[in-house]
Amino acid sequence: MSNKINESMSLAKPEGNNLNVTQKVAVTLGVVGLLIFALAIFNINFSNKTWFLSVSIGLIAFGTILFAKDAYLTKLEGIKNDGVWFKSISSRGILGWVTGVILTSFYIILYFYPQYLGLSSNGESNTGLISLFDPLSNLLSGNPASQWFVYGTLYTLAILVFGYKFMLKYRHNRYEQLRTASVMFFQLGFAFLIPEFMSRLNTSPDYNLPYYDLKSMWPLNYYLFDNWSINGLLSSGSLGLIMLLFGVVSIFVISPILTYKYGKRWYCSWVCGCGALAETAGDSFRQLSSKKLSAWKLERWLIHTVLVFSVIMTTAIIYTYLGSDPTKFWITRSVFLLSVGVFLTVMFTVVMLFKRHELGKDARYGAIGFFIVIASFFVMHYTSTTNEIFLIKSSSLRSAYGLYIGSIFSGVIGTGFYPILGNRVWCRFGCPMAAVLGFQQRMFSKFRITTNGGQCISCGNCSTYCEMGIDVRAYAQKGENIVRSSCVGCGVCSAVCPRGVLKLENDTMKGRINSNEILLGNDPNLMDLLNN
Amino acid sequence: MEHIVIIGNGISGVTAARHIRKLSDKKITIVSAETDYFFSRTALMYVYMGHMKFEHTQPYENWFWEKNNIQLKKGFAKNIDTNSKMLHFAAGDILNYDKLIIATGSKSNKFGWPGQDLKGVMGMYHKQDLENLERFAPNNKVCKRAVIVGGGLIGIELAEMLNSRNIPVTFLVRESSFWNGVLPEGESNMINRHIKNHHIDLRLSTNLKEIVSDENGKVKSVIIEETGEEILCDVVGLTAGVTPNIDFIKDSNIETGKGVKVNTFLETNIKDVYAIGDCAEQHEAIDQRRPIEAVWYTGRMMGESVAQTICGNKTPYKPGHWFNSAKFLDIEYQTYGWVFAQPRDNEAHFHWKHEDDTKCITVGYNKTSNEFLGINTFGIRMRHEIFDRWLTEKRDVDYIMNHLPKANFDPEFYKHYEKDILKAYNNQL
């Protein structure tokens, strides 16, 4: 039997479900809104840019909202996954592929050819799509738009309108509603508005603030410790210093505490901007993530490799920065390098001493392997005569990271491939921040997904709709709690479970990971036999 | 090496195979005529509804079986020769066994209705039923109306399936209220209303008289017993319960009743032949359970028990406290302990229903001792572990009502109703 069993033979009508009149109107409005952007890309110079920009954003927002209302509010509250695997857009059909190609191309143009979007050079005024956004940029920051402003605006718009759609879809589920409201708030306020307002401060000579999304922590925010960023912050008075300190405190103090209490979900599905887009605009693609064991293996190697890359790159950047003027900072190059080395060694030793039994064999080998790689870089540094740290120029490391990880992995593949690989490709395979938080979640957190005794019927809804590709069912059908580094705590497995088997919760660390089969209702003697 | 042959690759047979493999290196062969690989039968509905692809219903990846050295054989077992320990297949080939586990599950009941074997008439149990439904009810152009006969768990699931493709459904239920042989009145009535809210044409106290054929041997309509009304339809779903799928065993020496007769060790009357899951019938019912239990987790437990017995730790099938769950369209249902449709002698029910008509609970207790007997809960998730413990500890009903928040399993930030429930409980005293 074919997997797409509902496929009609008609070319004109590949899907079983028709749009009704309201939905057709909604789609038309949204497409007209997008058409204005398309015209702007082709350099149509609209006479009244404020008006055209408002109309196009308004039409896109209104169209999506109208569509969502009709799709969800006309039905009773409940799980709304009917036809997900029949719809072209959500089952890698032609609409899915087209969307994937368009998104990927958009990212390539955005990162590598912004002039095609109308970005000016040599101080001339913008043209094309970017000039369409000049009025809004002027309103917020007083500056003309850049490609990043256009991107930021569209990104925020997508999170807001699809967030609204998601809230309607889950209107019976307060967990989903609250965390969606939360990502909408953090995106609009922290990622979009506050940085724009901050750049208004830069009109005063006392300030030279870089773009800084306060909720975006290192190592996700890999440019926090770049020369321009640190210079900007340090030359912006006490505000800049506070922001830099906040960035450091975030990753070393705030984040571990919150992750201990609530799991990495406090960040990944309540605050993070990448997570926000994945959970809202990307929600229709969550079922596309691979649940194969091989995908999980790839994930573990890839994400930790990116983390190691990011640690080495950042260490090199800061090392080089400190070198530029030895009298300027209280911390010297060698003190810095030594403290990084001590920190990593202590962390590695503590985990190997106290948590070794909680790690799988390949995780232990992986940890040892990565530790040896990092350690050998340090050894090479101290034994070699070269001035370059880790043999490579820190600036080449930085630009390689920016290109391959920052742009290609997180942007082009991470978002462009939503309709093909699922909505959390970056978060699952690449994000170094997710690796750090996931490590904490697996080792030192109260968070788990509890399995409800023996109620699981192995139906597979939980695994299918896990955007991180976790085979939730494999745990649930054995009565095990789910404690996985990659779980972002979106709560959808719990929502789609037809038998009330899964609950995300924070409880004591004790007994959190039970690898025994604890299936309630069984005879206790049988349970003893099963576990021995 | 001892060869264990398991007929049936459902939850019971596959659980038995997995545990035998854990405990031993015996040769294991699983026989199935239905599918190549184990899948979750309970999830078939989600494939038709487009929530999942068929491959998602398979809990193990395809390489799992070879890696664990479990042989899979596709074939229809035709009869069992217990004297020479040989299994004969419909295709003519044979398989020798040292020990045989029968785990063939159920088939849909047919009560001899005229027209019950027409094209377009089907149960909803096997993968082939799903393929049939896909053929006769791909959309609401091909299937302008479907009639479902039998108001149980599979009936309401089939109604939900058809509803997801906007196919109008007429739902014939023999009882005066949905599933009221199992559910107490208040719950059953709430589900009646919920079914109607989904625009399903629910006909209570209505029996099927006959299914009428068109000129091509395909269903054209059904006739209602009580009124003689003819309802035009393209699909008829027969969901009036299931019965053990053991026709091929009737000619063998293995003792059968409705199912394959087994003792608590799941042994049949023939040495080295066992039966587990839906197709097994206990000589004596265990606790207040039925002799035949067509429930997911009991199949799993029987598979676990029989694996121990076969590998030398002779273990009886001893299920603990009764529990179960289901979902009626958008309303989840869980039950722990015993709550019967009608309170039995010396029993009483406390019933609470939320005003939104999608949540309710019924608590059963002993009127003289006040011992808590069981709870049915709709639209509120409860913790299995807690109720299992409370039943073992034989807590009284007041304790349960006052500690209900401990048992709540709803997602975080959900509204809680324990205070309302306790207030209602205290008021009725």
Structure description:
- The complex is a heterodimer of chains A (532) and B (429).
- With 532 residues, chain A is mainly alpha-helical.
- Helices cover 59% and strands 2% of the residues of chain A.
- Chain A contains 22 helices and 2 strands.
- Chain A has a two-stranded antiparallel ribbon with strand order 1-2.
- In chain A, helix 3 packs antiparallel against helix 15.
- Chain A starts with 20 loop residues before the first helix and ends with a helix.
- Residues 1-14 of chain A have low confidence and may be disordered.
- Chain B is α/β, with parallel strands linked by helices and 429 residues long.
- Chain B has 3 domains: 3-107 and 243-310, FAD/NAD(P)-binding domain (3-Layer(bba) Sandwich), CATH 3.50.50.60; 121-240, FAD/NAD(P)-binding domain; 323-428, Enolase-like, domain 1, CATH 3.30.390.30.
- In chain B, 24% of the residues lie in helices and 26% in strands.
- In chain B, helix 5 links the parallel strand 10 (146-149) and strand 11 (169-172).
- In chain B, helix 1 packs parallel to helix 7 (296-310).
- The mean pLDDT of chain B is 96.
- Classes of the chains: A mainly alpha (532), B alpha/beta (429).
- At the A-B interface, helix 7, helix 19, helix 21, strand 2 and helix 22 of A face helix 2, helix 4, helix 7, strand 21 and helix 8 of B.
